[in-house]
Write the structure tokens for this entry.
Amino acid sequence: MPKPTTYKFCFGPWNLSEGQDPYGPPTRPVQSFDWKLEQLKALGYDAMMFHDDDAVPDVDNKSDAALKAEAKALKRKLDDAGIVAEIVAPRLWFDPRTVDGAYTSNDPKCRRYAIDRSLRCLDIAAHLDCDLIVLWLAREGSYIRESKNARRCFDYLVQAVDKMLAHHPKMRIAIEPKPNEPMDLAYVPTIGHALALAQLTADPKRVGCLIETAHALLAGLDPADEIDFACAFGKLWSLHLNDQNGLKFDQDKPFGSANLRVAFNQVRALERNGYGRKGEYVAFDVHPFRTTKVEHWTAHLENSRRTFLRLVEKARSFPETEAQSLIADRNYAALDQLVLEHLMGK
Ligand code: XUL
Ligand code: MN
């Protein structure tokens, strides 16, 4: 029996958000990066995840030398705090040049910008001693199907990933699929799409995936099955646990808060695949509610981690022998109830 995994935890500066939504302004004051890093440390987390411009603000207007100096200063700050940079992700959905997609824009100048920006994201990661880039392909899709040639777009996506692979020989790339929002329909909606795309690239070994609970649920899939699928390929390199109440906007709720059983099954899947044993982190891509008061600002992060660890205990104490005999007897009604009783406890 391998030793049980000791999980390591991560979140990003955007997970201490200020409460703005498409219908209203922030409900909490803006906080500095240093404050966010302090909270992360105080909560006992091990790593921080970054967008390129979380690490180097206004990255497009910085010289390579300035980018290096700022990234190295951040690295020193993280080292002093004993915190690791888990991933860096290019923010390819904000700039006007990404309005019609980044790598898949119809405009070649815009596609060029997206690739150049991604290469700079790789540079930032390298300065932070981090070997994993995450691509959330936010605007790679369309609102109007006829507006883009999807066949060509898949080629553009592969070409963009190939440029990144060539730029840095050690860097790995994890694709974070999401089926919709902001686009109506995304070109890479599921882990199956992400891993199939990886096979078309110049170095499939360096292209894997990141699963986000809410994104899998929005695709109508069970996140636990997505985890097992990705792990069958040895390609689950990062993870955004959260929760989602049905097919709505991306809610980024605390882990387990909408469906504890679905959360339990994700933890079981992580446990049976030994997720974390190669140094992978459990990241919570969760947001405070808009209603959250300043004094409760970090509760969703504390709660998500607590729920995760409670569910690890539940996974490890699951009555496996009893479950196996019910499975052998095809008594799935009793198995169903066994799971519920176990989750409800005494
Ligand atoms: C968007 C999302 C992003 C990515 C990082 O839904 O999950 O925060 O995780 O760019
Ligand atoms: Mn995410």
